[in-house]
Design a protein that fits this description.
Distance between the termini of chain A: 80 Å
Oligomer: homodimer
CATH topology of the largest domain in chain A: Aspartate Aminotransferase, domain 2
Helix content of chain A: 40-55%
Number of domains of chain A: 2
Largest interface: A-B, 199 and 199 residues
CATH superfamily of the largest domain in chain A: Type I PLP-dependent aspartate aminotransferase-like (Major domain)
Largest sheet of chain A: 7 strands, mixed
CATH class of the largest domain in chain A: Alpha Beta
Shape of chain A: globular
Order of helices and strands of chain A: HHHHHHEHHEHEHEHEEHEHHEEHEEH
Strand order of the largest sheet of chain A: 1-7-6-5-4-2-3
Strand content of chain A: 5-15%
Number of helices of chain A: 16
Chain lengths: 507, 507
């Protein structure tokens, strides 16, 4: 290493570049930010969304921008403070107990801190030499988590990728290229006149899965939808008949996708049974565990994914139930060789000619991304600091809370439950009186919108069997039974009004 | 909003959860982190890579992990400090003038600070209601940057996505679905017996582009490679004949991809000429400007992308030449309606039934990602604070530096240049004497490896016309002419030795 004195060079920059890279200003702006984030995290008030008109927010954002003609721009501490305030106050309030609406989590603060390091040191993790520690801990976390999956430690593999949708796409590409080896080079046209390749999915599968058929040249018409049972799981007994019918229609299912659990209600498809059916027919079994794979780390809840060791691939979003910043998705393959099939190509400037001990860890050929954020770092840091106990404790609490909320609903005559919660997602309907299906649907949509606009709680909605239901996703361990009771009060407050006027047409 | 006193509930957590979410510990760990990052940013020493054996690094990382059986884990300040030290010291040193190897940038520190906010508040930006400010500023930045592209402000659109590879895939899906409307639903099989859909690319196109043919069911065999001229650009005069030949072979090119500039040497394809050819034949013109689109913000350099207003889509990585944390990729469409074609699907729980002023800003239907990092925030914050001058100044300096380094090489008899640098990428070869093509190739590979292992500088290599070349990418404005001279000295030091022994077989 040369001494730092040599670095004092003749850079051409004006004050602007010097200022933007000034270390003292970095420290100052970081302190401002930490103070504001600390205050935000300490605010345990119950609140939903501060929904603002886009045009109003656009004006506020524009007002914070330096106008080019005006004067030379520069660092402005007050402007930074205003930007952070606007950013924090208008966002989804994941750290508040009023936030019960989506699968995004209030990140463990330490995960955010480690992510901050990533943002500054900017090590992309697709290649070992660019981000050595991220590549090494990716292997470590793969081994740690595979303990709960149960695959052969020498044969399985794991990659990180930017979100569950991308992981599902990648897994289905690996499946397609494994089972339909001509597809990569020749394209889908090669399959004309033969049985058309098809993908079987649960009727409630995430939209990212069904659209892989459109993306990959399989064709969305070649999605075979498997009917659900009353628990909103794939109905095992009806799978074989549906696959047989598809075959008679000229389709050949090469991949079956199970959910663990579903996005809408958190239902876990019966992986063990489906694995048996898939194996009999030579079908690749992919499990979309974006939401629910994290239950594997809990001794109490692991059985929801019984049979996972028989699957071929598994999507696991750490940014959901492992509480890290998004995205941090893990894609596991039972057989690493098959994982290499997703993208078959080489490029001289990124893949070195002679693999060595360093390039063996490169993942650029196994993921969509070329430049990839070292997203494993926050997860590993939490795991290193707190072990799996942190995750297991929080997940067990949230799932128990969903069950207790379900019991509460059973005792309330003006509410109906839509399912028994298998995880931390609970869907239900407000039905204060006799209502048709259509009226019930409209009431839930109106209630959800009003609750959102009032800003005390944030919940979502989902259609179940064609009728809207209210949906809570319990991602915050600060939410208690009591908060859920307050939510029901809120729903009744807005719901009675809607029910009287709009649904029963009092006006 | 309810008062905070209500939030004091009966959570079931043990000390572990309380500790992990403790605000005081968040402040403390942030301070430790800011101090370490500040020290890292202040270190201007010239250094390359501290390349470590993966097995050694694995042991070091494992040593920092709490063993489950041992005792209850907990927050440990010393462990955090050790994690950050290990992370920072083993990474690619993007903030050092010794880093000249890749297109990752030393981020502007303020961009990292804003990204930190994103990591903690965790607002996904696919849906307006979840991340209001990111969605609004995405529109603002689209308008700001479109000033330099020149599309109809009412017709164009822009989305953010996780990396240039994903943006290229998304654009090509939009092109495929626009020009081959049966593909999404019916799949590639529908095109058997007709002309096979094909994609034309420059022979030096990024691997992410050519592999889209494999991903999307077009088939990699249906990639038509366009020959390059001596400047490593697509040779306009030879495009029409190659397309005609392809047509006679039964191919129908529906999309042509130009690079601005290429990954290997930073060459800009002649967009203006190609747009004319594409228009004549009804071909979608996509420009992969992952690296070079940022030159648009410079009045001096914009002409490299002459004709960009005639393209149909453009990939632009802000995490390269706009110096933000990765990933932050912008994908522009000239016609927003066509951008909606990339993924045709709806899902009730994410896309609301009746679009309103809020959901009109949702981008979930237009990107691969469902949960998407609010990656626009760091870029917007820099733009708001410093205006475009910051970017233009830095980019102009880096491109001028590449030209000056090129001039330096012309005066050195033991070096040969491989091209005239159109941007901040410069490729050249060390040739201290008469060498065959094969010897020249081996020498560059050996020099690159030795330079990397010595750890004073970090450079890359690339094959040009089948022979390896040394490649520098100048991403740091602290690099001067003098540093480049030091690099040449380093290359000579290791190169003479390699030349004597390995190439000329003295041993």
């Amino acid at each position: 290493m040369f001494g730092p004195q040599v670095a004092v060079g003749q850079t051409q920059d004006t004050g602007l570049l010097l200022e933007a890279f000034d270390v003292q200003l970095f420290r100052q702006s970081s302190e401002t930010t930490v103070a504001k984030l600390g205050k935000h995290l300490a605010d345990l008030s119950i609140r939903g969304l501060n929904l603002t008109e886009p045009s109003v927010l656009t004006r506020a954002a524009r007002a914070l921008m330096t106008r080019e003609k005006e004067h030379i721009a520069g660092y402005d501490e007050e402007k930074l403070a205003a930007i952070i305030d606007l950013y924090v106050s208008t966002g989804i309030q994941v750290h508040s107990p009023g936030y019960m609406g989506r699968q995004f989590s209030g990140t463990v603060p330490l995960a955010g801190v480690i992510d901050f390091v990533s943002s500054v040191v900017n090590q992309p993790s697709s290649f070992y030499e660019a981000g050595q520690l991220p590549n090494v801990v990716e292997r470590i976390m793969a081994d740690e988590l595979n303990q709960f999956i149960g695959w052969d430690p020498d044969r399985f593999s794991m990659i990180t990728t930017s979100g569950g949708s991308l992981a599902n796409l990648t897994a289905i590409l690996a499946a397609r290229n494994d089972r339909l080896p001509g597809f990569w080079l020749e394209g889908g046209a090669a399959y004309r006149g033969r049985a058309l390749p098809a993908i079987a999915v649960g009727d409630d599968v995430h939209y990212s899965v069904s659209r892989t058929a459109g993306i990959t040249g399989i064709g969305e018409h070649q999605i075979v939808r498997l009917p659900l049972n009353r628990r909103q799981q794939i109905d095992t007994a009806r799978v074989a008949p549906v696959l047989d019918t598809a075959e008679r229609r000229g389709l050949k299912v090469f991949c079956l996708v199970a959910s663990a659990g579903t996005t809408s209600v958190g239902a876990f498809d019966p992986i063990d049974d489906l694995a048996g059916l898939a194996a009999e027919r030579g079908i690749w079994l992919h499990v979309d565990g974006a939401h629910g794979a994290s239950l594997l780390v809990s001794d109490k809840l692991r059985r929801r994914l019984r049979g996972i060791e028989k699957a071929d691939s598994l999507t696991w979003d750490a940014h959901k139930m492992m509480f890290t910043p998004a995205p941090c998705t893990l894609l596991f393959y039972r057989d690493k060789e098959k994982g290499l099939n997703a993208f078959k190509q080489r490029a001289s400037y990124v893949f070195d000619e002679d693999p060595d001990v360093f390039t063996a860890l490169d993942s650029g050929g196994k993921t969509i991304e070329c430049t990839k954020r070292p997203m494993i770092m926050p997860l590993w840091a939490l795991w290193a600091m707190y072990g799996r106990a942190l995750f297991a404790e929080k997940i067990e609490y949230l799932c128990a809370l969903a069950r207790s909320a379900h019991r509460m609903l059973l005792a309330e005559p003006d509410f109906e439950t839509a399912h028994y919660p298998e995880s931390n997602i609970l869907c239900f309907r407000y039905r204060p009186g006799e209502l048709s299906r259509e009226e019930t649907h409209r009431l839930q949509v109106a209630v959800r919108d009003r609750v959102k606009h009032r800003g005390n709680f944030f919940i979502s909605k989902v259609d179940i069997d064609g009728v809207a239901a209210l949906r809570v996703v319990l991602m915050n361990h600060l939410i208690t039974h009591e908060h859920f009771r307050m939510l029901l009060t809120e729903i009744r407050t807005v719901g009675r009004d809607v029910y009287q006027r709009a649904v029963k047409g009092q006006g």
